[in-house]
Amino acid sequence: MEKSKRIVVLGSGESGVGAAILAQKKGFEIFVSDFGAISDKYKKELEERGIAYEENKHTEELILNAAEIIKSPGIPDKAPIIKKLVEKNIPILSEIEFAGRYTQAKTICITGSNGKTTTTMLTYHILKTAGLNVGLAGNVGFSFAKQVAEENFDYYVLELSSFMLDNMYQFKADIAVLLNITPDHLDRYNYEMKNYVASKFRIIQNQTTDSHFIYCDDDTETKKALNSYAIKAEQHPFSITHTVNNGAFLEDNNITININNRETLTMTIKELALQGSHNVYNSMASGIAAKILELRNETVRESMGDFKNVAHRLEFVAKISGISFINDSKATNVNSTWYALESMGTDVVLILGGVDKGNDYSMLKSLVKEKVSSIVCLGLDNKAIHDAFEDDVEIIVNTKSAKDAVEVAYHLAKKGSTVLLSPACASFDLFKNYEDRGDQFKAAVREL
């Protein structure tokens, strides 16, 4: 047990409550503070364990006396309580950083602007299929800290957002994966792309010569930044445009994964459960991680062929009257929607819209011209979408509920078409979150 010192957890979601549980187990005096309401599920868990908490406020005298703060990744640095903690030089860390102190398990850590959830889930699926004792945590799965407190995994696959990485200091990823870097969340980085890039590259901090760094050799921002860092880890690039050494590449629709001193894996992209060039990238990254761990080719090939994607990410919902409905509600930025459209055939009815984070829709224009027959807006303010695409599609319709959007899209679609919910925007104008938006979309489809 650690000597008793006071730790305050800010935020009471999955990561916050998990951190509180681990801190309590390690003998710390622990207090949880949430500026909003705490859900009944987490309140019950805190009460059953006798962990002190408050909700709908931050009481400064109960927070500013902490030895360390474990902060929810959703709380911005400009929040008043964070500014006061910084003034008092009280260390602020993430749940991942805290939990990492108490496990010797190998970590496979995945970040990127797009594709990280899919890649994390696929990597976990491959390791699980191979029979490894593996946990899933970070942005997906259960709290890393709670699993460290209560489980005994040999490996963890962790999805890490830039917000998590910002408050990680000593944590070391044994295998770090950087999928891509495209503009997102720039409001949290003073609208400076270089700050966001630096945040993503924190995934390699503390790596040593026995670590591994997997990255996309086709990604402009990643390539531009590589020379700015003294990378000690063994590097494993992947590309769909050219051959690479000690990584993965695509040639004649075949993926080759060739890691030094390990058996080469080859498979055709037709064998992949996940289609589209973005998913070739995701599969390459997962495959490299699997081969670093010396998993058998048959296991990797089988796992990449039978994987089922996560909810709200290009999730097939139903086929009605010959029209396919796909839920990609997790696409909250333009890049994610680009990837979704890129994987579609032609004649798409695209449902777009929500809270626009200053989106630049220009990168979608060529794909919209090629594949989209009409756009259904789902949001309170759709002017930017109309302005961006009025010359590219004949029909743009405004709706303000998932039910209306689905009904309008159904009438606009023809047999053989796809209705794709891929909003390119946050969901907070009409929905609780992207899950709520996706769930309402699926419910509306099933009512047709």
TrEMBL record:
Record's keyword annotation contains Transferase: no
Enzyme Commission number(s) of this protein: 6.3.2.9
Keywords: ATP-binding, Cell cycle, Cell division, Cell shape, Cell wall biogenesis/degradation, Cytoplasm, Ligase, Nucleotide-binding, Peptidoglycan synthesis
Domain of life per record: Bacteria
Recorded catalytic activity of this chain's protein: UDP-N-acetyl-alpha-D-muramoyl-L-alanine + D-glutamate + ATP = UDP-N-acetyl-alpha-D-muramoyl-L-alanyl-D-glutamate + ADP + phosphate + H(+)
PANTHER family: UDP-N-ACETYLMURAMOYLALANINE--D-GLUTAMATE LIGASE
Name listed for the protein in its UniProt record: UDP-N-acetylmuramoylalanine--D-glutamate ligase
